[in-house]
Amino acid sequence: MGLFDIFKHKNQSTSNEENKVDEQKTLTENEENNEELPESGKKETADSEIKPSDFNQPEKENDSVTPIVENNEKIDEIESQKNENQASYEEGLEKTRSSFGEKLKHLFANFRNVDEDFFDDLEDTLIESDVGVQTATQISDQLKEAVKLDNVKGHKEVQNFVIQKLVEIYDSPSNDENKLKENPDGPTVILFIGVNGAGKTTTIGKMAHKYQKQGKKVLLAAADTFRAGAIQQLDEWAKRDHVDIVKKSEGSDPASVVYDAVEKAKSDDYDILFIDTAGRLQNKVNLMKELAKMNKIITNKIPGAPQEVLLVIDATIGQNAMSQAKTFKEVADISGIVLTKLDGTAKGGIVIAIKNEIGIPVKYVGLGESVDDLQTFDPEKFVYGLFKGLVEE
Length: 393
Ligand SMILES: Nc1nc2c(ncn2[C@@H]2O[C@H](COP(=O)(O)OP(=O)(O)OP(=O)(O)O)[C@@H](O)[C@H]2O)c(=O)[nH]1
Fold this sequence. Notes:
Belongs to the GTP-binding SRP family. FtsY subfamily. It contains 15 helices and eight strands. It is of the alpha/beta class. The chain folds into three domains: about 5-90, no CATH class; about 95-170, Up-down Bundle (Four Helix Bundle (Hemerythrin (Met), subunit A)); about 180-380, P-loop containing nucleotide triphosphate hydrolases (Rossmann fold, 3-Layer(aba) Sandwich), CATH 3.40.50. Strands 3-2-4-1-5-6-7-8 form an eight-stranded mixed β-sheet, sandwiched between helices. It starts with a helix and ends with a helix. Guanosine-5'-triphosphate binds next to helix 8 and helix 9.
């Protein structure tokens, strides 16, 4: 099977499994609750054994049999939520998909020869979409090699080679790479860092909503004590999401907020604790010390925690996102990236650059300002989505 066929196959399977991202999401959510995903057949089966718990609803006492009509309504609700999420995912990536994809289409539509001019145009096209100079040059050099060694020269051959190289950057042996790690023995602790305005607080609000909806007991910690507004903003999210929060007044020691939050998370049996930090980069040494202090407190109370240190980056700042990621990598042990505001950029190539040049996986993408606009990042779907128009030609 040639690459073109692989792409066609991939696109087919994408349309066959239209809601793959959200099915995965639902599957993860159900796995997290140790529950089986309801099989589609159960919808029509009158004697099916669907339980309220299949749908992440708390089981009511004396309610062992749930009427089938009610179950069908729940299934419809889940289906409609899945479709809505799918639509928001597609919509959120539309700018990037059309612009990046169009540029590549234009490049290949004007293809004459695989010569120096083509290599220059290829690099320009990739750089314009924020794939980054390093990654663009790397792909161009790989193509030059393939031209020399494997006599790659035809239009389709060259096109497929470029696509394949972009796909390979995100080809991970483990599909679990972008899932959040959890603590099986107690509260899972997730620490958020990132510059002012990147979208940390909003991301925590969206994530808390997602976990709360799954029936998890969620606690927030307002350890960004630098600004009163930040504490207030997180407090508003806590109210909106109906989750608890540990907060202190502006200017308090962030480490003391973390201490109280970890204590509370442990003693009151919370499932997950999200910690909002100031994470400002103005003084790298201070930031490093502050994060080290927080980490020590967390690890002392909950060995193995924090399970994740997520760096929140605004996708609309283009190549500055790369320098931010590099600098934060020097001060913290980052386990994943949340790329926010991807809905606001036509240059989503930054997703490829971050993985290729920094080596940290993008785990979540922010695709809008509302509570449901946070999605698990599906690299395969993202990359294939970018080139959909090209490979269907
Ligand atoms: N369009 C869009 N806007 C977003 C997204 N995520 C966050 N925002 C907006 O970005 C702005 C900044 O987000 P915050 O969550 O306040 O950022 P922060 O990093 O917590 O900033 P500080 O609290 O100042 O440290 C807000 O207006 C959010 O609504 C996203 O995925 N898409």
